[in-house]
Amino acid sequence: MEEISKSPAVPILELREVQMQFGGVTALRGISYGIPSGIIQAVIGPNGAGKTTLFHCVSGLLSPTSGEILFRGRPIGGLLPHRIAELGISRTFQHVALFKSMTVFENVMLGRHPRTRSGFWATGLRFPSMRREERRIAQEAMYYLDFVGLADEAELPAGALPLGKQKILEIARALATEPSLVLLDEPAGGLNMRETEELGDLIRRISETGTTVALVEHDMNLVMEISHRVLVIHYGEHLATGTPDEIKDHPAVIEAYLGEG
Asked: Most exposed among 49, 125, 146, 247, judged by the fewest C-beta atoms under 10 Å?
């Protein structure tokens, strides 16, 4: 492992010797890293490097075999995904995971669930407090749709959107949880050049709100253009860390991933 440079900022997410094994296969080999608050952090590496596995561990879909994951200084390894979402971490997926028969609007409303307070009886009996909360959720859902540019498609079935807009809808739903840290897993996968440029603009705007963004991405133009920091993983190990300029000129990264050109 080689670290190019360090940031003095206190990390919002800290990984301490995180290891993930599946039987005889080790997907993550003692990853240690801290993501400073408020930045756009890219995670890159060849296919099979362990990038998505890392996101699964952070978001609670997997429990690390060993090591520790801290969010705002609190250990979260082993917590269920809904508890991690309540603490302030949300994510999108490499393959779009929407409720495609539901409307665009309803998908984003579901993202508000970690921030709702009405219980079983209040919901079932339609208490006034529940109806007020429902109206507020609807207003907030429209806010996030407007933020990502999908307000005009609010009443369409999510499955009727083209892939690019489905990916943006997933981001809107993730933002609706009011995260401090949002994990984007290959958000540019399958997008054309114009859609990728629009995605980059959206990610910058998310960062400008104060939300920390971590993205796994193979589009190197996007990574180098929008990221503040880049973490390179190779065969489950932390290979290098640095700014985009430092990473693109790093010999070990060029050899392992980017290519001599």
From this structure: 125
SS3 258: helix
Measured between alpha carbons, how far is 192 from 217 in angstroms, rounded to an integer?
Answer: 14
Helix, strand or coil, per DSSP, at residue 168: helix
Residues 6+ apart with CB under 8 A from 226: 40, 200, 203, 204
Do residues 257 and 45 touch, judged by C-beta distance below 8 A?
Answer: yes
Rounded to an integer, what distance in angstroms lies between the CA atom of residue 191 and that of residue 89?
A: 25
18-62 pLDDT, tens per residue?
999 998 899 999 999 999 999 999 999 988 899 999 999 999 999
Alpha-carbon Rg of the chain, whole angstroms? 19
- pTM of the predicted protein model: 0.86
Residue 77's identity, in one-letter code, is G
CA-nearest of 222, 227, 219, 184 to 93 is 184
Tell me the three state secondary structure of residue 186.
coil
Q: Hey, what amino acid is at 180? A: S
Residue-level pLDDT at 124: 47
**Is residue 218 a contact partner of residue 43, using CB atoms and an 8 Å limit?**
no
120-148 confidence digits (pLDDT tens): 434 444 555 555 667 788 889 999 999 99
pLDDT of 171-204, one tens digit each? 999 999 999 999 999 999 989 999 999 999 999 9
Whether 40 contacts 203, CB under 8 Å: yes
**Cβ-contact 148, 104 below 8 angstroms:** no
In this structure, which amino acid lies at residue 208? E
